[in-house]
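Q: How would the structure tokens look for this protein?
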Amino acid sequence: MAESLVALTETSGEEKSGLAGATETKQADVKGKIIEYAWWMQKQGYSPVTVESRIKKLTRLSRLGADLLNPESVKETIAKQPWKISTKANVAAIYGCFAKLHGLTWEPPIYKPNYEMSFIPREAEIDQLITACGKKLSALLQLIKETGVRIGEACRIRWIDLDLEQKTLRVQAEKNSKPRIFHISDKLISMLNMLPKEGEHQFNVNARILETSFRMLRMRLAKRLGNPRLKNITFHTIRHWKATMEYHKTKDVLHVKELLGHRSLDSTLIYINIERAVFGSDCNDEFHVKVAKAPEEIKTLLEAGFEYVCEKDELMFFRKRK
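A: Here is the predicted structure in token form.
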């Protein structure tokens, strides 16, 4: 891990040739600070993928001209980039953690992302990708389609987590979510059994490699089929698809919450709006309607399968199909 951290922070030969004296010393100091930050994250329990991602972003900031020891320089560099607001907010937050560790005064810029409705692919499009992939990638896509797991969770799955007799798959959590056990289809079991058992894990533990392979494949397939929508399908949009379909089928937001491993119900409520946008309003349906105000009343209704509709006059309205 130490060698990989150093490699992530290395500057190119071109950059090195243009540096001299004090500049080289400062660059070495910055690189040391980045590596120190990486070790701190590891000790705090951050996942290897998160550590790698954050180090790459800090190193990229440095190569774009930001002096990581000068917060104002960092702020200016971020502002000049043609990034999305959400990307700028993410990079600013990462640098804020780096600055705090090293005692730098950081007043973060105000970036408020405009949240957009998630892209939801069609099932036929997901199946096209599954069919077009090789054995490992197609099994991975089928796994995410059936379970809605995150790519990081899928990378952690070991062969010992697969129970062929019970037809279940155990998934360890990431991002402070909950571990789950899924009942999986015979089709997925067959696809997993066709994979070579070369190590402890079913898939490559490096999610970045899988994401790169998948991106290249869907670009080729989108061009061949003349369907640009395929370019927007990622591992995470398939997770969104699964959550939306489960809510459409059950109208049970708590079920979807448990399926996705969310700790907070707030993270799951978005799928109510997505489901309505995808399938439209069911204006002919009949509902039981309840009103609540106190937290315990709200909790009781949600546990009973009622869904939140709106709030008016400090009252929250819920409904459930009859």
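The first strand starts at residue 162 and ends at 163.

The mean pLDDT is 85.

Upvote if useful.
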